[in-house]
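Anyone? Bumping this.
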Amino acid sequence: MKGFFKVQTPAQLYQKLNCFKPLSSEEVPLEESLHRVLAEDVTSPMNLPEFPRSTVDGFAVKAKDTYGASEKNPALLQIVGEIPMGKVSEITLKDGEAIKIATGGMVPEGADAVEMVEYTGWVDGQTIHAFKTLSPLENVIQAGEDIKAGEVVLRKGRLIRPQEVGLLAGIGRTTIRVFRRPKVGIISSGDEIVPVDEKPNSGEVRDINRYTIVSMVRESGGIPFFFGIAKDRFDDLKDKIETGLNEMDMVVITGGSSVGTLDLVGEVLQSFPKTEVLGHGLSIRPGKPTLLAGVQGKPFLGLPGHPVSAMVIFYLFGKTILNILSGWSDEMKPQGRRKVRAGRNIPSVAGREDYVRVTLEEKDGILWAYPIFGKSGAIAHLTHADGLLRIDMNEEGLEEGEEAEAILL
Amino acid sequence: MKGFFKVQTPAQLYQKLNCFKPLSSEEVPLEESLHRVLAEDVTSPMNLPEFPRSTVDGFAVKAKDTYGASEKNPALLQIVGEIPMGKVSEITLKDGEAIKIATGGMVPEGADAVEMVEYTGWVDGQTIHAFKTLSPLENVIQAGEDIKAGEVVLRKGRLIRPQEVGLLAGIGRTTIRVFRRPKVGIISSGDEIVPVDEKPNSGEVRDINRYTIVSMVRESGGIPFFFGIAKDRFDDLKDKIETGLNEMDMVVITGGSSVGTLDLVGEVLQSFPKTEVLGHGLSIRPGKPTLLAGVQGKPFLGLPGHPVSAMVIFYLFGKTILNILSGWSDEMKPQGRRKVRAGRNIPSVAGREDYVRVTLEEKDGILWAYPIFGKSGAIAHLTHADGLLRIDMNEEGLEEGEEAEAILL
């Protein structure tokens, strides 16, 4: 059973994640593309804007007619009409003329700038004063200035946010090719675990992990399927894991009694063809017994049974694997991690990465992290936490005021 | 038309948002509670854990039997069995005895501490050496140590994250009372706007706002419904707005030709009973013509037609209003906003808040903001942006290196 019990650093295990590849792609309607990942390079079939548009409310003019204009010496211009929104103006502007235009309106033939309404004054019903000298193209966005026809506007691997949806609408895309959302099979295990709607007998506990893992898979863009609670027995584990690997893109199991169960899970995995154990045992706290394998190319993640440990490891590895399967190629956005300072001395043991539950408090632009105490690190503590503070493998804790990085929860 | 055209600061308008109230509540299954907001104080019906549990793998003992134990002078203990997971051990531990236990196992009667397996050694099949002195309750989490029966564990107004779902599972909740998700009616308007699947004629543009607003409503926990594109005419606007206000919890309109349309929209609102215009005109860029009203207590938000302006104002006001309707009482989490430094000089005009599209780059723990150039602030530019940099009303721009706040996109 190669790889077993050779404790690795989290960084070593991270490097092995590139053996997993993005899933296949599918075409979805534009309105369902939010938070999906592009599986194509998107090329614009057109210029945007398609015609020269005013960026202000005011009067379209020839810039040269305003040369030298000022508060004291305004230019006098003849009003020849108003640009109707959504229509092509049939007017061609001549020297000394101006035409009323709203933001977004089509700048007519002959005009090359727009004087903002704030810098004009009516002389009579047909004449205005323009108080500001304009340069050519001032307050005008030219055809193709935003996007040129044939230009690649969004690349494969891009996460689709509201603004990307808007851009795709702007160039007339009604369907988009995106990577499939990963289907994730979730198994709870442990003889002491009972479903949430059962009253546990003494010695038993309710299945918390089912709900936290399902929720985190959903937040990571995956589609979770729960495969039930496996007893700590080879046959029951094998049955559920095999079904999961056949039907899903990834399988996550939480091991009721931590090390013991994940050993048994490791044996089950070895009974399948083409299993490669990438890691079993991490120099990290919490989460030491973590097991990661590829079975016929599909990721299999074995998490400790303790709910907090399971969540920490899922934040670190599960989300990253789901990002890879989803085809997301962007670098990690600054949303997820923040530089913080330790609000007090926080002890740690060198030789493993430590993830400490903290509350975060902003003072004068600095984010201070205060550890949450509690022997167990139970789920109740995690609901008080705003983040997980990372203490490096080479540090023996942090001193008050020292900088470190936190993952925001 | 009270309130019209009196330009307000964003801060003044913010203060008026407290006239809106959370929606009614509903009961949902636990598995659908993620990202909803609690509408009840949740009390635990039980202790968690319900029984004393070991926090390590090792041997349950009487602490006093290890007093004085050390590497050189280990305590000798008699093994009397193993705690089965999920079962009540029938053994009562006597002086000088130890029993094998896994993490999470139930500490048996008579035992009050657990010696970690790392600090033990087998002497023979029935006897171990314990090398470390334990204090009472060491490595044991007592019944009720995480949560006491009757304790309020989560308060009304709390956003439900994966860890809250886990806690609710842990105390056996299968359904949860949460606030209703706001239904949001979305109207596009403007004579120049055509649906995305139509080829625009010259002077026309595709309806980008429909897709960006729908996406942002979804991201904010609302349920978006699109009511179509209204022409810039009183009757058409009134028809769609009236239906929206009757059927939805909130209505958002984007005005094709900015100021002009929102004036007409203002007139439509005044034709309804119990309309209170909270603001029309903001000292902000982009987004000056913004209109906010309460119609029979329901929020109505009129956004400029320019897609970038509409998005900026929705980020600032739309999301906040949806948070209020959703009953979310938490303070704004640090996720959404970051302290950054200007990567170069960024000019601005005093007297209005300026939101500049920026890319963000982290160097040595400092997040640098670089403005994105482009006359139009078009949607394509927003897809390159990581954030919106806020320049205060009282500043004439930022100097390179100066600190400011950015909203992350």
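Late reply, but here is one note on the structure posted above: Chain A touches chain B through 99 residues (CB under 8 Å).
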